[in-house]
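To assess whether ligand presence alters the predicted conformation, the chain was also submitted together with copper (II) ion. Input:
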Amino acid sequence: MLGKHLRAAAAFAASLLASTAALAAYDVDILPPVTPVSHEIYKLHWGILWVCVVIFIIVFGAMFWSVFKHRRSVGAKAAQFHENTTIEVIWTIVPFVILIGMAYPATKTILDMKDAGNADISIKVTAYQWKWEYDYLNDGVRFFANLATPREQIDERHGPAAKRSENYLLEVDNPVVVPVGKKVRLLITSNDVIHGWYVPQFGINQYGIPGFIKDAWFTIEKAGTYRGQCSQICGKEHGFMPIVVVAKEPGEYAAWLKEQKAKMPAPATPVSDSADAVATTSAAPVAAAAAGGASAKVAAGAPAKAADGKSTYDSVCMVCHGTGAAGAPKLGDKAAWAPRIAQGKNTLYASALKGKGAMPPKGGNAALPDDAVKAAVDYMTAAAK
Ligand code: HEC
Ligand SMILES: [Cu+2]
């Protein structure tokens, strides 16, 4: 009888031990901090936890000791006293001192988190359902970051999902790249609903709210890749808009920036009076095409081209087709274009005008005349031949 109980107890103890061994593989901790502010947050997290542990031990220790020591079976009699000034002063002053001791460093950290002034770099972060856009305000570099995990790893509609990659749902096509040791200010907003830019290792979890710009900042101490996710339930693909930040040494960052700048559309130039000048401002192709349609409006005697494919492409289509964002066939990528071109010109025109898959009608620019869109298609197909 006893033997049976012992065996059961031993089995239970063994199972407990086994599970602690399994748990040891996971650190019971928050992710390692990599910025001065997240170091402060980390210290606060553990420091305040230990204060709580000590208070817990003192309070419950005193309680259990009193209950045990003064139990009725040993004939304890309750002390009858009221209004003991000493005790009342002590139990007011001591918690007050403890609270101040915790509030002071916590407030200091919060003030520090909010001080995004004097930044070296400012990046505007715009949230969309369901991707992020990064705009390097000082450098004119702008791109979207989309989930890079292939759909076949996520979908199980056609049988079991494919083997998951190491950074499943935490990988993007275009990560935000920043230099190590520089103060980076983020200006966070949203295009549709509330999202949250959350990277735990930076100690940043900031709402992106339509119509508002919130800021946050970080200075990364060590080169590396840091990952996060949208922290607000923002719609059906809330779990599919991760954040990846790559911190590079300043030299490497400069090289990356140069490469990105080369990919961006040419900066706006004032319209010159030369007859065949085609302005590259974003309004120009629209205006030029509109002018072509209603010949009365032809500007300054210049025979404006009805639809200049390249400038429409540069101003509207390039954001996606220049980098291949969201599965858009990249400009000049013959392999991506060949099967599409094989569908015939009219199908391509129709896709460009009416939209297809992730591509919005007319590239999201409804004001664009059909001719301009068709010319842009011609430009893109020509580039892929
Ligand atoms: C918001 C991003 C985005 C913009 C802006 C955009 N495209 Fe696309 N485009 C895509 C995506 C994504 C695809 C792939 C769609 C698919 O095959 O499901 C695509 C595909 C195409 C195709 C191939 C269609 C087919 O039938 O295979 C053409 C042509 C095209 N785009 C033209 C344009 C033109 C012209 C513009 C500018 C007026 C433009 N796109 C702007 C994202 C975009
Ligand atoms: Cu979101």
